[in-house]
């Protein structure tokens, strides 16, 4: 039975005897034989080679590294070596075995000598536990079996699910705060003086929203939008934005503590990745010389220039979306369909959001088919392929970190460039009636929704998050499931027809198991990376512009509860087994999350200061309202704000080619949202007061939020006291043991 335990399976097409591919395959297998590997061949529609490493390789590994594996087991028995350790070591040796032609396994796979190499999902007890307690929908609200995940998939995957579970748990508090913010707005907006004034503005006639065949309109037409806007744009939003800045810090600090506890329990707290990598190289080749660290300012400059070029391309895509919205707005307003022309601005925003979602999907596919490291992918766009090798990473992890930073920046600009435009530029660079800024001298740049700029940002974020968490998740599950079904149908072995009187030959017990594993979807070094990237981008949506969309944490919470078990089902039932990798933390992703936390403070401060009407309302209350002039205490101090925030425009100053429908011809003065003088359309003094107040609020909000973040980070230690004391006692015990070996030599004869 022991002979049937195999560490890895290599799959190859059946090549002609004496062909170049057959010779290369034989050379590689001969190298494995020289290292003492046992190899079993099974022939079907493909050639399958089961690979098992000799015991002395793992004994060397245990001698080299004093880690959890060597402390917890007796190295004299091969069955005591954890399966995850066996797979990890064998995978490293397979990837670094060099043939006489100086070719490694990834070179041979690129040349189609081998088609696949994977460890096996085995019928172990631990797999049955994971299928029962983790990889099924009915246990969605139960605690994850992290220890079993670690024993089956290794520390790196287990830490991902521990982090995702911790993030999901803390999202409950953020979701409740977001719901409370919306509820506060919902109970306040009906009595909001600002929305009441908009709903009562039956005589306030506004400038047309397009140049051709658009009519003037009455401000009260936007009553419903005004109520929705003030549901998310009120004093509670400022408190919520501050809460989310603190929440992001507390989440990371508490995760650091949780990580320290988990790493200590797994005995990987002091594990050194570089030492393990050197040990594995020496096990594979005792003459190995370490690759030294390299750095070149020239290479770094080239990488920086190319990265900036990629960012410029993404910003160009955002500009294309801006052009689409301007053109769509002009076409929709001139449409004969009443629904299109009446709600042209909202429809333009929503279709623009759907287009933005499609660009995110396309650019994500582009980035997911790129790779910096050998074995990541074979379909690599040349720019990304060049970026990481140009930096000459010394180790796999260093290359992975470089790749993570670049792809995250790439994805961040893909997801947020359009949102940044809507939040901070929409309606601020479009000019004013009589002097609009135009694209190609023809299409007017779009304005904010009449009820406020934050409405556009709210719609954009709602559409993207809902689409990402419905369509994307459905496709993420359906594509592997359909692919698995097709592979099963295509690659299932065909029964050989029996001759009369011939006895059926007994099938090798390994054959069915190997075929079942081969029929599963392949995994690569991207598999876990893509899961991290998806959740980190979601975390960005949940924190950076959350002031404009307080329901983002709730959507993220619902998504993550589903995501955990969807990932579990994919890993256990639809994909081949991932190569277990050791880890003591979530790596470079922690620094990425900390950077997002700082961006969240800046982003939410800017949204409240620039996008929201919070600051203009406060300036009006304390400087221009009846309360400020006459010291009224009985009336709402925002009374008259709407009329104060509108500027006057004379019809005679329209541009010559502007044609409006003759609905309000008797009125020569119209209104528009801005703070400009009626005679020369220059900015009023109130505009500069508001500008100064916005700047002062931004500086104050960001400094207070960052100070609170720093205090929270100081107040919550990264490592629990219990873990510190445990490590201290362990160090003391190790030194005592060393002292016992030294003392006898000091005793006089």
TrEMBL record:
Record flagged with keyword Lipid biosynthesis: no
Anoctamin dimerisation domain residues: 78-146
GO molecular function: chloride channel activity; protein dimerization activity
Record's keyword annotation contains Cell membrane: yes
Domain Anoctamin transmembrane: 149-729
Membrane-crossing segments per the record: 157-186, 236-255, 302-327, 347-364, 403-426, 536-565, 586-610, 691-716
Subcellular location(s) of the protein: Cell membrane; Membrane
Alphabetical keyword list: Cell membrane, Glycoprotein, Membrane, Transmembrane, Transmembrane helix
Lipid bilayer topology: Multi-pass membrane protein
Pfam families, A to Z: Anoct_dimer, Anoctamin
GO CC aspect terms: plasma membrane
InterPro entries hit by this protein: Anoct_dimer (IPR032394), Anoctamin (IPR007632), Anoctamin_TM (IPR049452)
Main location: membrane
UniProt cross-references to PANTHER family, sorted A to Z: ANOCTAMIN, ANOCTAMIN-9
Family: Belongs to the anoctamin family.
Protein name per the record: Anoctamin
Organism: Copsychus sechellarum
